[in-house]
Amino acid sequence: MKPDRYAVLGNPVAHSRSPFIHALFAQQTGQVMDYGRLLCPMDGFEAAVRAFAAEGGRGCNVTVPFKLQVPPLATQCTERATLAGAANVLRFDADGWLADNTDGVGLVRDIEHGAGLALAGLRVLLVGAGGAAAGVLGPLLAARPASVSVANRTADKALALVDRHAAWAAQHGVALSAAMLHAPGADFDVVINASASSLHGAASPVPTRTIRAGTLVVDLMYGPAAEPFLSWARAAGAHTRDGLGMLVEQAAEAFALWRGVRPETAPVLQALRQALASS
């Protein structure tokens, strides 16, 4: 049987762990599929996607910097992709393309199942208001924390993200607000870094008073990039988690969307951590 073709598209894309993850998912669930990487020219994303679909591709993941370009290509967008204004998954159906954003649900599942912390009723600080924050805010609100504060260096950007999600927050009974990085509040139950600060090696974009002993601090990055922020948090007594769990969980959601079966994520996350540790 010829394997169904999938790929992750981005620029850069050689670093992507998605082929490793999806190969293990396929092996675990008995799915016959091939998953690769496709480097897209910065000005040629749409052409690359259409060529991949025309050559028999069944679907794809999309990573930076193209997530904002995905929804306009789709015949149908899921509610969470529409809310985020960006998508990281396409499924090529015979009657059109479906776009989805699995980042947020991946984060929520990693927090609630991987870290074992139910978000309902908690106070959450989301650091950043760019594409990464937009991708996770909707599902975070759907988990019904007591409040979510979006802190960003530029107030207007945080306010715009909050405004776009205001009705969704009200629907789920969550107090949603915007704040500046230097004064976001104190003693949060969960702090999530969705900003670019880790890419620049910064220890923390927010003051130490945002966390306390026992706060769960999550960086959406993983590996050496996440370590300065997570080390800062651990020094203050916080529990920490990097973005690898979210990476595996969002991939499982995409896999289920494509194949109709949900893989077990815990053994894949363990295998991925072992592979990274030995590389």
Could you characterize the architecture of this molecule?
Helices cover 38% and strands 22% of the residues. The chain is of the alpha/beta class and 279 residues long. The strands form two sheets. It has a six-stranded mixed β-sheet with strand order 2-1-3-5-6-4, sandwiched between helices. Strands 9-8-7-10-11-12 form a six-stranded parallel β-sheet, with helices on both faces. It is globular. The protein starts with a strand and ends with a helix. The mean pLDDT is 95.
Order of helices and strands: EHEHEEHEEHEHEHHEEEHEHH
Poorly predicted parts: none
Number of helices: 10
Helix content: 25-40%
User: What's the number of extended β-strand segments?
Assistant: 12
Which range does the strand content fall in?
15-25%
Sheet with most strands: strand arrangement: 2-1-3-5-6-4
Main sheet makeup:
6 strands, mixed
Distance between the termini: 33 Å
* Computed structural class: alpha/beta
Mean pLDDT: 95
CA-based shape: globular
C-alpha Rg, in Å? 18 Å
